[in-house]
Design goal:
The chain is an alpha+beta fold and 560 residues long. It folds into three domains: 196 residues, Nucleotidyltransferase, domain 5, CATH 3.30.420.10; 73 residues, Phosphorylase Kinase, domain 1 (2-Layer Sandwich), CATH 3.30.200; 270 residues, CNF1/YfiH-like putative cysteine hydrolases, CATH 3.60.140.10. It has 14 helices and 29 strands. The strands form six sheets. Strands 14-15-16-17-29-21-18 form a seven-stranded mixed β-sheet. A six-stranded mixed β-sheet has the order 3-2-1-4-5-6, sandwiched between helices. Helix 4 links the parallel strand 4 and strand 5. Helix 6 runs parallel beside helix 7. The longest helix is centred in the first third of the chain and has 15 residues. The radius of gyration is 25 Å and the shape is globular. The N and C termini lie far apart (69 Å).
């Protein structure tokens, strides 16, 4: 049995043909493994990109691959043919399933057939190693972390280059390889394999879905163990359902969260309980500085502004506060989220009040369904009202761009980072939602490059502001999240030790570093310095209230 360890490098490229992003493969690297003999022949091949004209700056820095070096590469299907001849009939091994999914997507895009010509038998080494070493499979262990756990010295390996990563993967395989268990981990790449590999996990957001059963919404009281039904109606918040529970026996009050994830294997139900948190009353309506922003009170409504942009002739930028709305309770008072359990008429009135105070046309608002990724959409006057007054036309959008003064861009944030982009040269703007996942995936740099494609924006002329969000002193994360940020360049500038095994991550500084890497000058980057968690009586904070909150909005529109 011949085994080939394969690693790929790819570049996230936006395809005008499909109007979606493609992880376009730019490098193949592989090494043969002969059980009992060790490493065999090596394979390395650069792939000339056809979809992405420019390499992501983070990809260039991590991999040292340049656009010039890719000019001498072969086409993707040419690389597939070369690899097929070199590998022969083998078991393909990768670290995790993502490389296989990228292969399938690229084959489908470039040849129209999702079948990978050389993929007949496959082993996910990440899963095999985690099972074999007793690490569990709940959390995915990264390649470098696995090498560290196995005591391997990989200091001489050039990470994020396909051949070097395949050699590191080989060292891990040699450490954990056992013929019988490995043979059992091999999958035959038949039709079911492809269905499983391409199946997209979805989250159920409708309680009327026939897959949702009554027992999914029942909780056991943490105090006395009594089986309980929700005391009030269920609210949809992000990918989860939340409701309050009041135990009549022991008096315990708590919040129940249910996440319903539809995977290939079936429905996965995840439940969690939280103490009922105290909700602060909105701050008194008094104007003044907050962080590096100004709080304006207009017609009794609080509006946060960037002072440096006060005289801008290009764009109107604002961030909402809890001051001046009509909502009550945990939504008090300026809640701008329709699907959080507040009354729709209250939210609609809040939009009208905030837009009047901040200088936006309420009919011009456009937003998307944010999913903590880096998808960006260009919008025009035809999209006015979508996501606020009418149904969202396109889901899974975390960034919006436009050069049309007839629309106002809107994103929701309640600890996540709002990023404002203004191009005064071309009269174009962008607004992005960057949670920790979006930040780590370089939403900042992705927006800079997308505006360059759409409008000819020069990064050197771009004005960017980082709005109210959780600060580096409050954003405490567990090791798996910390490792994601520690893998980024200049991590020492935005990752610091926390309590115990936890770390503190400064999303403001991380986004600033990513903007600098995208060639935005330091003097063009504003940091608002308003922490949603520390200022939770002024703006809504998801962490501070454990999800019992309304929604803040960032808004941005061209003037004229």
């Amino acid at each position: 049995m011949e085994i080939v360890i394969l690693d790929l490098e790819w570049n996230a490229a936006f395809s005008r043909r499909t109007q979606a992003y493609l992880n376009e493969i730019i490098e193949f690297g592989a090494v043969k493994f002969l059980p009992g003999q060790g490493a065999g022949e090596q394979f390395s091949c650069l792939v000339r990109p056809r979809v992405g004209k420019h390499l992501n700056a983070a990809v260039q820095k991590l991999s040292s691959i340049t656009e010039e070096s890719l000019d001498s590469g072969v086409s993707f299907m040419g690389a597939v043919s070369r690899f097929r001849r070199w590998a022969g009939d083998c078991v393909v091994v990768t670290w995790g399933p993502s490389d296989v999914l990228a292969l399938i997507e690229n084959c489908k895009y470039f040849s129209g057939d999702e079948q990978v010509p050389f993929l007949h038998r496959f082993c996910d080494l990440q899963r095999y190693a985690q099972t074999r070493m007793g690490w569990g499979t709940q959390e995915q262990v990264g390649l470098e972390r696995a090498a560290e756990l196995l005591g391997l010295d990989v200091s001489g390996i050039d990470h994020h280059r396909a051949l070097d990563d395949s050699l590191e993967t080989l060292e891990i395989l040699q450490k954990v390889y056992e013929p019988e268990s490995f043979a059992q981990a091999i999958q035959v790449c038949d039709e079911e394999f492809y269905r499983r590999a391409t199946f997209k996990t979805t989250y159920i957001r409708d309680l009327d879905n026939p897959l949702v059963h009554p027992e999914h919404l029942q909780f056991t009281c943490p105090g006395c163990g009594k089986r309980l039904e929700a005391s009030d109606k269920w609210n949809v918040k992000n990918r989860s359902f939340f409701a309050r529970f009041d135990c009549p026996d022991c008096g315990r009050k708590f919040m129940g969260r249910v996440m319903l994830k539809l995977k290939y294997e079936g429905l996965v139900v995840n439940k969690k309980t939280f103490p009922v948190s105290e909700i602060e009353k909105p701050r008194a309506a008094e104007a003044g500085p907050v962080g590096q922003m100004d709080l304006e009170i207009v017609q009794g409504v609080g509006v946060l502004r960037f002072p440096a942009w006060a005289g801008s002739q290009t764009a109107n930028a604002a961030f909402s506060t809890r001051i001046g709305g009509v909502s009550r309770g945990e939504f008090a008072a300026m809640n701008l989220g329709f699907q959080r359990g507040d009354r729709d008429e209250n939210v609609a009135e809040n939009y009208r009040r905030f837009c009047a105070a901040a200088g936006f046309d309420p009919e011009s608002l456009v937003t998307g369904d944010q999913v903590h990724r880096t998808e960006i959409r260009r919008v025009t006057a035809e999209h006015r009202g979508q996501g606020v007054w009418t149904e969202k036309e396109v889901l899974e959008i975390d960034g919006l761009v436009t050069d049309d003064p007839a629309v106002t861009l809107v994103i929701y944030c309640a600890d996540c980072v709002p990023l404002y982009f203004v191009d005064p040269e071309h009269g174009a703007i962008g607004l992005a939602h960057a949670g920790w996942r979006g930040t780590a995936a370089d939403m900042a740099g992705t927006m800079v490059r997308r505006m360059a494609v759409e409008f000819g924006t020069r990064p050197q002329a771009l004005q960017v502001a980082i709005g109210p969000s959780i600060c580096g002193h409050c954003f405490e994360v567990d090791p798996p999240v910390a490792e994601v940020f520690q893998a980024l360049e200049h991590a020492d500038r935005f990752v610091a030790p926390g309590v115990g095994e936890k770390s503190l991550v400064d999303l403001w500084e991380c986004n600033r570093q990513l903007l600098l890497a995208a060639q935005v000058p330091a003097e063009n980057i504003l940091v608002g310095g308003v922490c949603t968690m520390e200022e939770s009586d002024l703006v809504f904070s998801h962490r501070k209230t454990r999800g019992r909150r309304g929604s803040n909005c960032a808004m941005l529109a061209l003037r004229g």
